[in-house]
Structure formats: structure tokens, C-alpha cells
């Protein structure tokens, strides 16, 4: 699995305190992207079980259970890295081991694009996501007052309500 970084106590990306996993690689290249350094295919390569243990330890550190966020780059892309495969694995692991925490995923794809691109396979990932923030960052619709998103075209979608 390749990733860019892990933030153990993130209060910006999600609700409450989260452990945030930033995946490397993005095909969108949105103008004035907040994370252009994550567009390429580089990153830290680590065996799944080692990364899963790091995340598990961070979620439970100091007796405070945290939520979990996946950002990027593009967590649901299949190019330049197979991030969708990584996201599917880690989200399944998180929900099996921490069923009561909230999971957040930011994607530049809309949910409609994901369903068209991946068909019913996307449902295997969506079932392990509580909140999906979808849509590409659009600088012309930038709004720093929005919760969990950077531009007005992006949506905050909640499981069992929006998908």
C-alpha cells in the first residue's frame, strides 16, 4: 500500500478527532488544488498489516477513540496508484475492527461518476463509508466557511440518507 502521510490527531478533516490517511496519486489535477504534491505516484510503501496496525494504534491512542478519514490525492482512483483497492481494504478493516467509529472519504469524483466508472463494485466500498465528500475542487466556487469541503459544488453525503 502507498500513502503520503498519516495524521494521528486531526481535528480539521472529519467530525471530532480523526486519524487521517492521505493517499498518494490523483488524476484530477484541479487548478489551485490544496495538495498538488499528492498528484504523483510516489509515497511511502508499506505492507498492509503494518499500516493497519499503525492506524489501529492511532485510533485507540491514550484511551480516546478517534474517527477515520481518507483523503488525498484521490482515494477512489485506479490511476496513477490503485488507491481504490487500498481504500476498499482499509475501510473494510476499520469497520470490522472499529464498527462504532465514523469513516470519512474525500473524492474528486461525484457519486454518480463513481457508479458509472465502477458499477456495483463501488457499493462494496460505500457500505464502509459513513460520510462521502464528493466532487472536484472548483476554485471559482471556493468558500472557506463550508464544513468539510472547499468549494460549493462539493457535497457532503451521508450513508443511509444520500447513498
Widest sheet, order of strands: 2-3-5-6-7-8
Low-confidence stretches: none
- Tally the helices: what do you get? 4
β content, as a range? 15-25%
Counting DSSP E segments of at least 2 residues, the number of strands comes to 8
Instruction: Determine the structural class based on helices, strands and strand pairing.
Output: alpha/beta
Quaternary arrangement of the chains shown? Answer: single chain
Alpha carbon gap, first and last residue: 27 Å
Q: What is the helix content? A: 25-40%
Name the average pLDDT. Answer: 96
Which descriptor suits the 3D outline?
Answer: globular
Instruction: Output the radius of gyration.
Output: 15 Å
Order of helices and strands: EEEEHEHEHHEE
The biggest sheet, with number of strands, parallel, antiparallel or mixed sense and barrel status, is: 6 strands, mixed
